[in-house]
Amino acid sequence: MASFLQVENISKSYGDKTLFSNISFNINEGDKIALIAPNGTGKSSLLKILAGLDSSDRGGEIKFMRDIKVAFLDQNIDFNPQNTLFDEVYSRLGETYNVIRRYEQAIASGDERKIEQAIAAMDAADGWSAEQRIKQVLSEMKLTRLDQPMGQLSGGEAKRAAIALMLLQEADFLIMDEPTNHLDIDVIEYLENYLQKARCTLLMVTHDRYFLDRVCNTIYELDRGELFAYRGNYADFLEKREERYTNMQANIDKARNLLRRELEWIRATPQARTGKARYRINAFYDLKDKASVSLARKDMTIDVATSRLGGKIIDCENLTLRFGERTMLDEFSYKFTRGEKVGIVGKNGAGKSTFLNLMTGDLQADSGKIERGETLRIGYYRQSGISFKPGQTVFDIVHDIAETVETADGHSVAATTMLNRFLFPPETHNKRVEILSGGEQRRLYLLTVLMRNPNLLILDEPTNDLDILTLNVLEEYLMAFKGSLLIVSHDRYFLDKTVDHLFIFREGGAVKDFVGQYSEYREYIKEQEAEEARQAKAAAEKAQKNKPQQTSSAPARRKLSYKEQRELEELETMLPQLEQEKADLEAQLSSGTLAHEELTAAAARIGQIIDLIAEKEMRWLELSEI
Hints:
Rossmann fold, 4 domains, alpha/beta, six-stranded mixed beta sheet
């Protein structure tokens, strides 16, 4: 396989903190790689250096294969809020957009030589079908309001627009930073299927373990400033990582045994030492460095108490909520029980976060009744993240809540101790919150929610910006949590591990209760869809078989009228003719033999044909489905 990327000796530090030092690696054509590391250790920084948005501290070299196209999906998307969705995506297509603009300018100028050059460029860039391609990709990403200003898009819509732009670039090498954040599960599965089949090379940071397993064939781990590569899936990574730590520990133990013997030698009398070889003394200090390495892992520890929970949690009776003409919740009734763990899923905008705000009392229903238990203590982890004032430090944030925190064993510990357990060592306590990484802010926010000892945890997209290692710890805590849980998440792996049943939110405010894991629900949906398809096919075959015996009073399906039948036949003849005319015109435009007037007319006609084909294909589909 060809080498698409060669990286030699790149480094990155912030202040006195070294993220990585002199790391080197090679990525070949077709590699699909996931980068894993704790938050704040340099994942995003590494991706930005590769994408050319940042630089290595001490030189180093980054070489992409010549002529390959590279696309970068950043976590933070910078759009012009005044542009419409279509214009923003269209204008960011780089040379394709410029080619189309130059073509339009050439036609307006009437300069025959410029028109010929512009037509050749349009052919090379496939500019004739660019508009249709943009609309198709946006539709696949469930972005249908092309005239909507970018400033009015939700976080999920903006992320889908960024992904659509990345796909439209048709790049050879994709660099993606948390592509699944803020996406609903249907879009995640679409992107997953696309990347599985795409013949692209990929390097991405993701916390979604199902997504990782189904897309990637290699995992890179940033550990203590070094980069390690593992072939295989996430389970293979965990196994091989443990083997690496075991081997490293064995080497450290061996070095320590040697060090004890060498220490006796180095401490010999000064008279004896003067005759000793200098190389052995130097080797002693190298051995001392190897023996002093510690492999102690700094994993987050969640050890907070759960307040006592009475028999009543939240009782809902006929809750209805509308925003204007849209019904967000329709006659919802349910009694939550102690220890119940509910996952909430549905498309973006279906009302999941609205439902959580109803449960906490932040919103009031239009009708119906909701009662909360007297012992209820809610911990609400919001999707919007932590709130803080400019200049507030990590210590300020926790100290404003409490000076001590009750732990699961009934003891009280200082808030600073709890900060240490959440991977905020003493030297970080005076850091301003605004300079923390996104993942560090999320981890601090989680601590502020848990240190209040809630007995009902409400988590709205808790996996966004948390690294996989932190998620593993959080999952273990939630699985053992003695209170009740309400979780909104797009992370299928996370839902499978933490909840007992699902509330499926649908359009019109309907809520379906599904007992089982999310993976089981998806299998159930696929089986239903397959069964519906089988039934539809069987019904169609039966209708076709019995067609001569049907009476006009009870047809299996509405017959096409004579006029509609004639229209369908004409369309089936017309569409191939239009496609052939389009191909002929493209060939003529590329030939360079047309006169100026003929060039102008052909260019105008090809635009008309593209619109006409789209219109006639839509009508053909309508008639075919009758």
